[in-house]
Amino acid sequence: MQLWKGRFKKELSKTTNDFNSSISFDSRMYREDIEGSIAHANMLGRCGIISEESSKDIIEGLKKIQSDIESGKLTIDPEAEDIHTFIEGELTKRIGDNGKRLHTSRSRNDQVAVDVKLYLKKEVEAVKKLVTDLIGVIAKKAEEYSDTVMPGYTHLQRAQPITFGHHLLAYGEMLLRDVSRLSDCLKRMDEMPLGSCALAGTTYPIDREYTAGLLGFDGVTNNSLDGVSDRDYCIEFASVLSIIMVHLSRFSEEIIMWCSWEFKFVELDDAFSTGSSIMPQKKNPDIAELVRGKSGRVFGDTMTLLTVMKGIPLAYNKDMQEDKEAIFDAVDTVKMCLTAFTPMLDTMRVLPQNMRKAAAGGFINATDCADWLTKNGVPFRDAYKATGELVARCIELNTDLENLPIEEYKAVCEVFSEDVYNAISLDNCVSRRTSFGGPAPELVKEQAKRMAAKAEELQVEP
Predict the structure, then answer these.
(1) For position 4, what pLDDT does the model report?
(2) Domain 358-444 is in which class?
(3) What are the boundaries of each domain within the chain?
(4) Could you tell me the pTM of the whole model?
(5) Is 155 a catalytic residue?
(6) Which of 71, 155, 277, 435 is catalytic?
(7) CATH architecture of 116-202+221-352
(8) Mean pLDDT over residues 246-265, rounded?
(9) Which one of the listed residues 13, 51, 180, 276 is annotated catalytic?
(10) Annotation says 247 is catalytic
(11) CATH 1.10.275.10 describes domain 18-104
């Protein structure tokens, strides 16, 4: 059944119908389509556009269709043009002429837009829940390893001592920003387009605010052209999902490195690892690798949406049918990645002794040595140069700053005393970094607690 057949004398070719059809991917929105239609029928009856009796008949019919789909009694026809056509056709088949009244003062253009918004509003909340679950795991592990010393890196070179808890909290902060972005995205998505009709509104005395209230929207779109042609909310949601995947991919990259024998900072649980078909010793971080790889897929979905929309004149164009597969795939992929990543991280075994061993090499306490000189009156640039000379001397002698004799220190700068060894102790290097946001264990514990509380708060937000 095509809702637009009256204008045409020939039957649609099967090739054209298959190419035009969206039922294979928009059928997932059957609940939202029925929800939107029930609200629309309520409004039509309340405003006297159709009779109250017709309105009730339509609503009862729609509820029965939803019940039959969910029980398996009714199968969605894969030959239907789209989910909207299928449901309206099934309704008319069941209740007759009253079913034909449902589409009064409505177009598929605004119907599709409201369905997608209703669907994505729920998905934003679902993704927020999964992200906050991950933040909770990060906060828990950060508190547990708040005093586990490890090397911090820049340029993938050992730089300064930090703690593993401090490192984890950096990802927690990224994800908290992601939750904030999701919330912002939801605010702009929360305007109902229904009532925009095809592009120019309607001559019927509809009550858009009433329908918006029934559907749980915060308000209505202000311009009928924009109401049916806007897909900013899809692009924005996909962009947020892409940023989430950037963060998951970066985290995955580090976990992959940490699992290698070259680092061996962590070991993944057997339940979240795989082996090799030929090398019996292998334990591969496939979950992390897949998350890293799937980031490109989500980026591609975002680029698809941008490309589809960039050259479309107002108002609706059939190109916009391409929005659904892209945003649905992005949502599905991110949810799948978060569902796998969070328990992988939660069950990951940390190897503090290997982190400590790595921190002991690479002269990552050199900055603290220079700072000690500065605090004892030496200008920082002179202190920097002197410490660089000490590092070079350590390399010549195949030793480190902690074991370099005091005579070598004094040969470079007379200001040095035995107190420098206390300053360059790895534990002291970390514990003395008490500036807010730093890696001192007590600060990490406080931040982890705040992050855990924030995650819990976000879980119960309406």
Answers:
(1) 43
(2) mainly alpha
(3) 18-104, 116-202+221-352, 358-444
(4) 0.91
(5) yes
(6) 155
(7) Up-down Bundle (1.20)
(8) 97
(9) 276
(10) no
(11) yes
